[in-house]
């Protein structure tokens, strides 16, 4: 049985737009998404989760956008093989059923909005990679920029 390993990393671009009269400071941190080993003959998609953590010194309303990554589009993000030419299809979602693409409200994508209390809030990121991709064994990566508006 052939196994292939790939992972995706989220990097961030932080943009704060205060909307309240009181000055607020917020930061965001990300954790990598790791799909683990990929079995090319498996009939099941690969699923993984990660999270974004927002830390603010006062309660804020926020909106989080994700870009399409370095190699793909919102409809199909792609991880590039490190040192190779293969690409693995995947996407990032706002829901565990992998049906709502997390993007920037362009086309069929949605952003994530909410209210964060003072302190730290964790937001789940869901990732799915379709089954049946015939790719070389190796490591794969992509970088997705995160924009936090508050």
Please name the defining characteristics of this protein:
mainly beta
Q: Characterize the largest beta sheet: strand count, sense, and whether it forms a barrel.
A: 6 strands, antiparallel
What is the name of the CATH class?
Mainly Beta
Instruction: Quickly count the helices.
Output: 0
**Main sheet strand line-up:** 2-4-11-7-6-12
Reported by name, the CATH topology is Immunoglobulin-like
The CATH fourth-level homologous superfamily = Fimbrial-type adhesion domain
- Which strand-content bin applies to the residues? over 45%
Domains (count): 1
Shape: elongated
**Element-by-element helix/strand order:** EEEEEEEEEEEEEE
Helix coverage percent:
under 10%
How big is the Rg?
16 Å
Q: How far is it from the N-terminal to the C-terminal residue, by CA?
A: 48 Å
Number of strands: 14
| Secondary-structure content class | mainly beta
Tell me, rounded to a whole number, the average pLDDT. Answer: 86
Low-confidence stretches: 1-21
Q: How does CATH name the architecture?
A: Sandwich
